Every structure is written in structure tokens, then in C-alpha cells.
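Long-time lurker. I teach an intro course on protein structure, and each term I like to show students one example going from raw sequence to a predicted 3D structure in C-alpha cell notation. This year I'd like something fresh instead of my usual example. Would anyone be willing to generate the C-alpha cells for the chain below so I can use it in lecture? Attribution to the forum is fine with me.
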Amino acid sequence: MKYKICNNCVMDTSDPEIYFDDNGICNHCRDHSAREKMFVPTAEDKKVKLLEMVNFCSKKGKGKKYDCIIGISGGVDSTYVAYKVKELGLRPLAVHLDNGWDAELAVSNIHNVLKKLDIELYTYVMDWEEFRSLQVAFLKASTPDSEIPTDHAISTVLKDFATKEDVPLVLGTNYSSESVLPRSWSQGHMDWGYIKNVNKLFGTRKLKDFPHYSVYRRIYWNRIKRLEIYSLLDYIDYDKEKAKKFLIEELGWRDYGGKHHESIYTKFFQAYILPTKFGFDKRRAHLSSLILSGQIDRITALKELEKPLYDEKELQEHLIYVPKKLGLSREEFEEIMNTPPRKYEEFSPKLPKIIYELEGKLFRFMVNIKKKLIARQK
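-- Reply from a regular --
Happy to contribute to a lecture. Here you go:
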């Protein structure tokens, strides 16, 4: 495909599935409005939804030690959620997943902020050798999905805790800052069969302790236990830069310099492996989301993309540190980097794949219905 960049956001043909209309506007921009109306309450509804969430958590947690579970990574979103739930008068348990890659600053931020907010912390520590083997397996599989093991484990641990304590799960997810997520850039987050297959083909250890869930556990959480999950940041007027400034000034939080850079591996994967091997820069998706939500303009986003992904000195340090921690020689790591990219579909079992495809089709059908309703209203 000839190179092209959207005239409205900053997504470009590094997403191989992108397409443009006659005005040079990409599909991500055109889909945003309908998706936002589907996921994000109106300004009038936000206060109502927020009050409903607080009342439900308080009622559900009556007589219990906690009335909600929150995930905490040390990043802006999850840290602001921690502050907000306390401001709302809730009694949260903060749960953090330690996969062996926490930056020292992330650990410091988590402990300092939670201490100031008087929130109890539980840290779930992964079996490092098992997890290391799985991460290496994903690198060898050569798909752009090497963060899926962490994402899948976090989701499992949080839902398990919420189910165990029988209270809602309150998350720091925010549609406005995460609305653009190209399917071709990462797939299979919920697909346990995919994770198992990759580990079977390329891993060196059986997955005995890895937190995971299948389609059946999702049914258990959602249909039997009726687990309530709230995206708190969608219920408030959330501006990431303003939130960051507040956390720095009021809670002594310190900035990492990039989205998800509280994890050394995530930073290395997003800022080096993905652009070097797969040819895309995830900042484009993050910045496009902020453009579409009105938090920044396109010129600011383009200037941000001109900045280097990595400080050169830090990159050279991480090029030694990350492979060594994973148990890879420099030659083995270079072989991984030179292996041609492969796709999620090559490793995903057929049955779960069919289920997830049906879910995707249903979602797209709902989006199209919403688009038609919006068009009629106009």
C-alpha cells in the first residue's frame, strides 16, 4: 500500500487494514463517533452513572472489608482511579501484578501514592521462570502480541479477586484515550487457546501457575457470578494531562515519559521491538485517540511523533538488559528480530477463534446500527 496518513488524526498505513474516504479521513475517525456514543455516557448521564456505581459498590460491600477492587500499575490512569475512588468515599483493595518488569519508579509511585491515600495493596507475583519462558515463546512466535500474556494475567487476577471478595471491579480503562486500537497491531488478548499454542510450540515450561481464563470462565464471571465491571474514567470528565499534573502536584507522583513505560519490558517492546521489527509506532494510536476526544490537536500530535522513541543511552542499556533477563544471548535476540512477522490467526485454535469472530461481528453490527440511528436523528 502506498504510504498515506489520515487528514484528521495521525493514523497511517502502518495499520495494513486502514482505509480512507474521498476526503482522506480514515476508518478509525469515522467509527469513533458511533463507538463513543456506545461506550461513553453523555455529559448529563455521567453524574448519574457515577452515582449509580458508588451506590452499587457501597451496597455490595456493606459489612465487607472492601467494596471494590481496583487495578494499579503505577501509570496515570490507574493512579488517578485510586485517588478518585477514595474521593468518592469507597473502600478499595488495590491489586498489582508483578511480572518481574516493574521499573523502580513504578514501585515507588505505587507505594507512595497508596500510602498517602490509605489504600491497602495486594501484589500478585508471577512465577518468573514460567513467565519468562512464555514471553520468550511469544517473541519467537514473531507476532506483534508479546504483551498479551501480561494483559491476560492482569485481567484474570483482577476478576478473580473481585469474584473472591464478591465486590465490583473498578478499572482505569478510558475509551476517550484508548479508542483507536488497530486489530492488526495486536489480537488474542482473551484467547487462552492462542497463549497455550504459542507456549506449546516455543516455550520451555508448562503453564502451571499462569493466571488464565477460558470462554467458560468468562461465562462464569459474567453470567453466573454477575461480576460488575466499571470503567470509572468514562464516568468523569477525564483529561490525561490535567490528571497527570494533579497527581504530580498533590500526590508526589513522578512521570515515566510515555504511556505504559512503568514497565521496562513494555517500554522496550513498544518503543523498540514494534517499530523496528513490525514497522508501527503505538504512539500513533494513543495520540489519535486523544485527537478524537478533543484533548490535543493534530499539530501537537505530529510534533510528538517527531520526538525519538528512546533516549539512545537508555536504549543501549536495555538492548543488553532485556535479552539477558530473558535468558537470551545477543545472537538469539537478533535472530528473533530478523524472523519474519507472523499473524495471530496462525496460532489461534479454530473454536475459540470462531467464538471471538462472532463476538467481533456482533460488536460491529451494533456499531453499524448505532451509526444508522445517529444518522436518522440528524
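Some talking points for your students: DSSP finds 16 helices and five strands in the chain. The longest helix spans residues 350-377.
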